Amino acid sequence: MRVALINPRFRLPIDTRTTPHLGLAYLGAISQRRGDEVRIFDMDVEDQPLGDFLKEFSPQLVGITANTPQVKQAWRTAAAIKQWKDIPIVLGGPHVSVAAENLDFESCERPDVDMVVRGEGEEGWIEVSDILDRCYQAKPDLTARELMDPRAGLWDKILGIAYKTSDRQLHRTLDRPAIADLDSLPWPAYDLFKMERYTNLQPATDAVDGSRSFSILTSRGCPYRCTFCSQSIMPIKWRARTPQNVIAEWRHLVEDLGAQEIGVLDDSANIRMQRLQDLADGLIENKLNHVPWIFVNGIRANLATKELMTKLKQAGLKRTAFGVETGDEEILASIDKRVDHDTIRQAFKVCKSAGLETIGFFIIGLPGETRETMQRTIDFACELDPLIANFSMMTPYPGTKVYEIVKRQGSMLVHDWEDYVFFDGKARYEMGEMTAELVETMWKKAYRQFYLRPHRVLKTITRKDFWINYRRTFRVAWRTIFPRKEKTELKRAIEAAV
Ligand code: B12
Ligand code: SF4
């Protein structure tokens, strides 16, 4: 069967980097293993018009990924495909997986979307593909309308999906359990991407050629549930691949694909510290520790011991992120982060003494914030002094506790999913004494206060990475402080690309 996987075009209003979509890379790999002919069409880097791609490849099944700001573009893409031919179109990804807010149905209600796969997609995707393949073998020119005929009853046994039958009725099946054995999954199919068109994954190393920068996922899920974190994809059950399985993929990235850096994308890689120790030993024993790697997303500060971080440094770890979120004790307790400031201080100290670079993720505008609490966050960032401080404007994603709180007690300022991004300097909601103006002022102050301290400026301009990429760095800094006002123009440009 010919299968196309699409990443709908969605560039942030700042000069963002592009990186192969790991979710699509996994789905592509699993379709390849099934024996399908697979193409990934990443509209962020493609120059071929969608129509030409469809005519040339003539897919029989299309899967489109969608996080929240991308979902409308996913619908537009689906509409363009249906105009070409009535083939089945399936959506997946973080946005459409929020069944609690009926966001699976929101997409299925669109005339051009047939089905949504919620959560981790591999198993559902294969079951859908198996059924379709059997149907196509019996009748190669089947249309989606025929496949979605309620009398055919093809879909009701597949867990974790929502779909629309051709009588326009919406259906939802029970959630699918988490994938138990992650070692059973194939490795992401990087051969399906035009690797030379990508930059590297922010906030990884600047100096690395995008086609030599790879991501890896060594575990899935997170046992915590911070109130602001969108966890619609990964169930609360944390699962890990075995160190042997991870090392085999690592070797493939380094030796076959020439990786110059590797970004570990796990939500919480250090839940089991012994596993990471074993992984580190394996990287050292297998002489894979010469390629620098980074914990891109943050590891738990309460599980970052000196022993572990020193061993990871020996294993090639160059930089690690921590989700610090806030400098205020009460706000920290209110977001269920389950860590305290002294533990965070200790984690940064341990990393620095082990010779590791650090990244701190901070949020400006959490529920209950005041000017003083936001200032405490900025001051705490300066005290920790990571190499990179990233301040996000609190954006309440559907399905999170913050979203519930804001719906009940505040007022949302955004009503368009395309505006659910957090780097364009605009407050997303107001609540209590937290006005949009205050949050926006404090967000800009955060960047200014952190990066314009004299020792910081000196540190920045004496780094080699900075000079290799200084044009881009200035552009991003400028766009961060002065975002493009003509958002509509940006949206028009994106829409025109379909
Ligand atoms: C790496 C990353 C990025 C990277 C790369 C994103 C990318 N294209 O992959 C960058 C830095 C660019 C990025 C940017 C943003 N990100 Co981001 N990102 C992540 C992160 C940390 C890992 C993504 C990943 O690779 N996961 C592992 C793979 C295997 O999972 P997956 O991609 O979700 O795919 C699986 C399922 O979703 C499903 N699936 C996905 N697509 C499809 C399609 C079909 C047809 C099917 C059947 C199934 C399916 O099956 C896949 C395999 O199991 C996640 C956190 C997380 N835990 O996932 C956040 C996350 C996806 N990001 C998030 C957000 C908010 C953003 C931004 C909007 C932030 C912003 N700046 O404003 C932007 C949006 C950028 C854009 N262009 O869309 C949120 C999304 C929340 C939401 N409701 O949409 C997440 C979940 C973080 C969080 N916990 O809040 N991100
Ligand atoms: S912020 Fe980090 S620790 Fe908290 S739920 Fe999300 S991934 Fe887990």
Summarize the structure.
The chain is of the alpha/beta class and about 500 residues long.
CATH-defined fold name of the largest domain = pyruvate-formate lyase- activating enzyme
Distance between the amino and carboxyl termini: 24 Å
Strand adjacency order, main sheet: 2-1-3-4-5-6-7
Name of the top-level CATH class of the largest domain: Alpha Beta
| Main beta sheet | 7 strands, mixed
CATH architecture of the largest domain: Alpha-Beta Horseshoe
Tally the helices: 18
Rough outline: globular
Category from helices, strands and their pairing: alpha/beta
User: Beta-strand percentage?
Assistant: 5-15%
> What percent of residues adopt helix (DSSP H or I)?
25-40%
The CATH superfamily of the largest domain is tm_1862 like domain
Show unreliable segments. 486-490
Ligands present: cobalamin, iron/sulfur cluster
Question: How would you portray this structure in words?
Answer:
The chain is an alpha/beta fold. The protein folds into 2 domains: 2-172, Cobalamin-binding domain (Rossmann fold); 199-497, pyruvate-formate lyase- activating enzyme, CATH 3.80.30. The chain contains 18 helices and 17 strands. It has helices at residues 22-34, 50-57, 71-84, 103-108, 122-138, 144-147, 243-256, 273-285, 306-314, 329-334, 341-353, 371-384, 401-409, 436-451, 454-461, 464-468, 470-481, 487-496; strands at 2-7, 37-42, 61-65, 89-92, 115-117, 161-164, 170-172, 213-216, 219-220, 239-240, 261-264, 293-295, 317-325, 357-364, 388-393, 411-412, 429-430. The strands form 4 sheets. The protein has a 7-stranded mixed sheet with strand order 2-1-3-4-5-6-7, with helices on both faces. Strands 8-11-12-13-14-15 form a 6-stranded parallel sheet. Residues 486-490 have low confidence and may be disordered. The structure holds cobalamin and iron/sulfur cluster (SF4). Residues 10, 12, 19, 21-23, 26-27, 63-65, 67-70, 90-95, 117, 120-122, 125, 202, 217, 229-231, 233-234, 265, 267, 297, 397, 421-423 line the site of cobalamin.
